[in-house]
Structure formats: structure tokens, C-alpha cells
Amino acid sequence: MHGRAILRLFGVLLLIYSLSFVPSCLIAVLYRDGYWQPFGVSGLLCAVIGGLLWLTNRRQQQELSVRGGFLVVTLFWVILGLAGALPLVLGLHLSITDAVFESISGFTTTGATVLVGLDDLPRSILFHRQQIQWLGGMGVIVLAVAILPLMGVGGMQLYRAEASGVAKHEKPTPRIAETARALWMLYVGLTIACALAYWWAGMSGFDAICHALTTVATAGFSTHDASLGYFDSPVIESIAIFFMLAGGVNFTIHFLVWRKHDLRYYVTDPEVRTYWLIFGASTLLVILSLSLTAAYPTWQESTRYAAFQVASIMTSTGFGTATFADWPLHIPLILVILSFIGGCGGSTAGGIKVLRVMLLWKLGIRQLFQLAHPQAFTVVKIGKRPVKDEVLFSVWGFYVLYVGTALLITVAMMAAGLDLESAFGAMVATLNLLGPGLGDVASNFTTVNPVVKWLGIFGMLAGRLEIFTLLILFLPAYWRN
Questions:
Q1: DSSP state for residue 472 in the 8-state scheme
Q2: pTM to 2 decimal places
């Protein structure tokens, strides 16, 4: 599997990542919070280790196979989690478990946290948490793919392993490096627009930048314990809804709109159209439920909180303006279902993805039709495009593995000491990349035991890597062939 070539690649990627500690160092110096040393040491360690791996294997330039790509993507997310945890260990003196949990939660854009007292943390630490979520949002691997070809390292295998679901072979440009650069241009552009909008709405410059990093990434970390509820501003919440929903749209659609100057792609694409429909219908249902149960005194307040929480949960962002676990019991269940659906394929959101849910629904309808008409021949279509049977089998296999993984994680967390509600909530929070859960983890994972946190780390990696990429490494046949 070209082990030395993989080590060389890890070296290059670590060298690139070591540069990400520079902004946090500068913020520590600018705000004089005394935390520049943990970031300096962390960056130096990553640079030294990366440099050694690259130097000792610099002549190993074999092209990676797809099988090797799966291994590189999975292991590098683990390595990223360890590297991102360094400042938390050196600066905040967190345990290894807590630091890795927080870091993996950041890079996987989950937003689950073990930290409390965010309002009093050093700004450099706060920025570091926001930054790792932003990097994870589009995928550090995709960023690397845009750069690695310039260094003589092919990237198609990494892109295939990192890209989401059934749309993984649809690229907006012919060349993989050009594709990655185009996606990152859009990502950066949306982030800048979001930051300016937050700043215009009344956030400080620091808060505007930090929250923009995690809004577009549909990630959910905040610089305040009360999340976006700290600002108590309908305007800020409306801006967040807009950019969270934008982050949940397939970035290929954003690219087409930008390249062809045609907004109609947002309503003509079948998946995006279904995405808007689910959001609208769910919001209306939650508004009606909150109004009928008198959870808030006016329908305007019900609308405000319902629209925000539906957008936050459906896109797996996890920002909060209200504790949805305290709402009438059927509403949290609606939101949990939305978290399983998630955003569009090729977006920064988590969950099963709207496109897969559409195909599963159409498969069910086709089966009912064939029971009524055994001799009929029907084809599953998305829009006007027929879907190949191999894609349908892949989607069905993904769904079975996703549900199976969800059940196993829930059972394991119960065995580790959580009650059913908390275990199910922790699974939803981690596997769906959501952040807030139910029961003991409704706000954070501070009080749960280390075993639950490591199970959560596994769940976050499985959700971020779309199940297949991680679980394939546990097959003996993967290592034999």
C-alpha cells in the first residue's frame, strides 16, 4: 500500500497544518492573553514532525490507490484531532480525552463540547476552536488536494474518499485541483459575507469573524456559553439562518450559480428543492406545535425560535437560542429526525443527506408499486435522470450501516453508564455531527465519563467520514487485497 509514500503525504499535510497555528499566536499577542506559547509550541511540533516525515520519505512519490486514499483520509483526521488538541493540553491543561474530544468535535464540525465558561476563556483559545471547525467544514483534505498537485502529489484518490455520497464523482471543473480551489473560493467568499453581515448587525469584530467561521461550516462552536442566544437579536439570528442554510446546500450548486449567474439552480435542482421543502414544512410544524402548547406568549416568538432551531438542527450546526430539549416532547423528536436527514450531499452539513433520503423514499414507493403491479418495470429517477441500480444499492447499504452504527453506539453508551435518553441523545449529537443532545448531554459532554467521550469520538469520525470510509478499515479483506 506504499507505506512510505503515505508517510510522506502525512508529512506534507502536517507541514501545511502547522501554519494554522499562526493566527492564534497573533491573536494571543494582540490581546495579550498569555497563550502564544502553547500555539507556538504546537505549531513547531507539527512542523518538525511533518518535516521529518517528508524528508525521510521525499523520494517516495507513488500515486495512491483508492484503497490507500481511504486510509490516508481516515488516519489524517485522527492526526488532525491530535494536533488540534495540543494547545488545549498545553494551554488549558485538559486531559488527553477531553482535548481530543474537543478537537475532533471541531474538525468534524460537530460542535459538542467539554468546555464551560467560554465567556472567560482566552481569545486565542476561542479563535482556535472556531478555526478548526472552519477548516473541517469543507475538509482539510480538499484544501490539501488543491495544493498537493503543485508538489507532485496526486489528489484524486483523496477527493474520492473525502467527497460525500452519491454525488462524489460530480465535479464542477475537470481537474481535481481546480475543483478544490473553486470550492474553497466559494467557501471563503461566503465566510467573509457572513462575517460582514454579523458585524453590521451589531457583533464585535472578533465575535463576527469567529461566528462566521462556524456558521458557514455548519459547525456550532461559539465564543459564549449561551451560543447565539447571548446576543438576543432577531437580526443576528436571521443572518445565521441564511448562512446555515447556505452551508447545507451542495457547494456544486453554489458553484453553478456563481459561474453561470443563474439563481434558478437553487429551485430547479431536485435535491435542493426538497431541502427547502423539508425546512419550510418542518418550520411550520414546529411553529404550530409551539403555538398550540403555549410554549411562548406570542406566535412571533414561536416563529423566531422555531425557524432558527429547525435551520440549526437540520444543517447539523447546533447553534442554540433555546434549549429544545425543554420543549414539548414531540418537538425534540421532530428535530432529531431532521438531524438524521441533514443537509444536501456535497455540503458541510452532517446526517444521512437529503439526496439519500430522497432515493430511499423512491425505493420504498417503487417497491409498493411493484407489489401492486408485479409485471411492471419502473426506474427510480432524480428529476429526469434515472439512477443506476449500483447507486441505489450503495445508498441502501449506507443507510443500513448508518442505522446499525447508530444502534451500536447507543447500546455502547448505555453500557458505559448513560440512561436511554442521554445515550440516544449523545449518539444523535455525535454521529449526526449535531453538537447538542438530550438528557445529560443536552448542553455539553462535560459530566460524562471518558468511555462515553471516546465512543463519541468514534461516532463523530464515522459521521464525518460518511461511514464507509471509516468502517471499511475494519474489514480483514481490506488489508489482505
A1: G
A2: 0.91
